[in-house]
Amino acid sequence: MSGDPPVIEFRNVSVPAQSEELGGIADVSLAIRKHGIALILLEEGREQTPFAAVAEGLIGADSGRVLFEGACWEDLGACEQSERRGRIRRVFEHFGWISNLDVAENVCLAECHHTGRTLDEVLAEAGTWAARFGLERIPEGRPARVHPLTLRKLEWVRAFLGKPSLIILERPLARAPKADGPLLVQAVCEAAQKGVAVMWLTDEPLAWNCESVGAGGRYRMKGERLLAVETEGNKAS
């Protein structure tokens, strides 16, 4: 419904740099509604930002407010925060695996924990997504024994399980087979058609140059600032 609040909203949010590697954001305002796919083009040399962790309420804002489905993270208790995070899925910038769990347990953990679905049910759905992304099956064993290209596509599988409200993609095509990029784009567009909001942090031409992916807004990072941009004349090379 048009009267629904944005799925994720930043209101004049500033977060200081967390480390030499993880930069900050300054006075950022951004809203992504159901069906929206917002593209954020990362600045060369400043690829790591706290957007995802801030959107999930894992890093608090120094100033401003971050609202998920109309509620500010800092106004929620721990249990309600956890329940709401159960409706967020994420492809991590770097390694996003629990080393002492098998791959299948990693893939299914969040969906089983937050929804009460059985492992067999979630595994069956994961197998369907794996096939869509060109994998024959969910590999056995620990993540350390699985090829990094396969792990990256398994992060895609994990992100689309169930019925998330928000999917956050942090450079999801990095360390992935380039030929499989269109498969991810198609999955993202289908998820948006079903009402999912998507925040896609990218420096990848495939994503930035796809008009359907940027229908929820296009932005560029300039230092710690987020700038809205027009589609025409902003193609990545």
Task: Describe the structure in your own words.
The protein is α/β, with parallel strands linked by helices. It is built from seven helices and ten strands. It has a six-stranded mixed beta sheet with strand order 6-7-8-3-9-10. A four-stranded antiparallel beta sheet has the order 2-1-4-5. The N and C termini lie far apart (37 Å).
Offer a concise description of the structure.
It contains 7 helices and 10 strands. The chain is an alpha/beta fold and 237 residues long.
Highlighted features:
4-stranded antiparallel sheet; globular; 237 residues; Rossmann fold; 6-stranded mixed sheet; single chain; alpha/beta
What are the SSEs and their pairings?
Layout: E1 8-15, E2 25-32, E3 37-41, H1 51-55, E4 63-68, E5 71-72, H2 78-85, E6 88-91, H3 103-115, H4 119-132, H5 148-160, E7 166-170, H6 181-193, E8 197-202, H7 205-208, E9 218-222, E10 225-228
Helix pairs in contact: 3-4, 3-5, 4-5
Q: State the CATH superfamily name of the largest domain.
A: P-loop containing nucleotide triphosphate hydrolases
Q: What is the rounded distance between the termini?
A: 37 Å
Task: Indicate the CATH architecture of the largest domain.
Answer: 3-Layer(aba) Sandwich
CATH topology of the largest domain: Rossmann fold
CATH class of the largest domain: Alpha Beta
So what's the oligomer here? Answer: single chain
- Helix/strand/pairing category: alpha/beta
Q: What is the total domain count?
A: 2
Q: Main beta sheet, described?
A: 6 strands, mixed
Going across the biggest sheet, name each strand in turn. Answer: 6-7-8-3-9-10
In N-to-C order, the SSE pattern is: EEEHEEHEHHHEHEHEE
Q: Residue-averaged pLDDT, rounded?
A: 89
Number of strands: 10
What characteristic shape results from the CA principal axes?
A: globular
What proportion strand? 15-25%
Number of helices: 7
**Approximate helicity band:** 25-40%
Computed over alpha carbons, the radius of gyration is 17 Å
Low-confidence stretches: none
